[in-house]
Amino acid sequence: MNDYDSEYCFISYKSTESRPILSADAETAALAYTSEALPLSSLPLKFKNGAANDKNKHIFSEEPPEILFHGSDIAVKAETFKQLTSIEIPNLALQPAIYIDQNNVHHGNYWFLTFTNKLDCWDRNKSLYAPEPLTGFNDIRYEVISYHLDKATLDSMPLTERRLFKMGATTEGWLLVHNSIASLFKKTGVELVPIKDFGITFFP
């Protein structure tokens, strides 16, 4: 019997003042880059360090980390990109991206992970969440505090279709990774949080 809560981790960030935060420039912000595979004419995506300003830009490293966060979404450098392209991951579009750091240096070796569909696989009977869904989206989303995964949903899918996915029907849409490929995301500044530790424990 599969214990899915022990097989998956959330891909999250380590909180620190010196962590760059991706902020889309005006041209990129006008695109559906978080949910659609964009035509080549729209690429590359462009992001700045939204956490930097004239007073604090000295605290950020000149060499940006392997993985950068944009909310719960991520952009990865070429090494991780190559590893991901060798794995068939449904609904994943890897889109080229440029990161413009706090010193206006352009880093063109990033790829943004866009999931064109989400996987709603959290257990409504065991998870802790606000019972009323939030409106204003094109789908139904709940504010989930702590998670348990739905066994029936995951049992119906082969592992090859659920090794990496974006959680559906939630306000945050965190990325989940199966233990079989979790090592790809063990990078500086990244926190791989087990299902049982996520929520109240991770965000007190």
Overall description:
The protein has four helices and twelve strands. It is globular and about 50 Å long. It is 10% helix and 29% strand. The strands form three sheets. Strands 2-3-6-7-5-4 form a six-stranded mixed β-sheet. It has a four-stranded antiparallel β-sheet with strand order 10-11-1-12. Strands 8-9 form a two-stranded antiparallel ribbon. The chain has helices at 4-7, 26-29, 78-85, 151-155, and strands spanning 8-13, 22-24, 45-49, 67-70, 73-77, 92-100, 106-115, 128-129, 144-146, 164-166, 175-178, 190-194. The chain folds into two domains: 4-14 and 118-197, no CATH class; 22-115, no CATH class. With 204 residues, it is mostly beta strands. The mean pLDDT is 94.
Radius of gyration, whole Å: 17 Å
Return the string of H and E elements.
HEEHEEEHEEEEHEEE
- How many domains, in number, for the residues? 2
What's the total number of strands? 12
Main beta-sheet annotation: 6 strands, mixed
Question: How many H/I helical runs?
Answer: 4
Main features:
4 helices, mainly beta, six-stranded mixed β-sheet, 204 residues, four-stranded antiparallel β-sheet, 2 domains, globular, 12 strands
Give a topology summary:
Blueprint: H1 4-7, E1 8-13, E2 22-24, H2 26-29, E3 45-49, E4 67-70, E5 73-77, H3 78-85, E6 92-100, E7 106-115, E8 128-129, E9 144-146, H4 151-155, E10 164-166, E11 175-178, E12 190-194
Parallel strand pairs: 3-6
Antiparallel strand pairs: 1-11, 1-12, 2-3, 4-5, 5-7, 6-7, 8-9, 10-11
Question: In a few lines, what is going on in this structure?
Answer:
With 204 residues, the chain is mostly beta strands. The protein is built from four helices and twelve strands, in the order H-E-E-H-E-E-E-H-E-E-E-E-H-E-E-E.
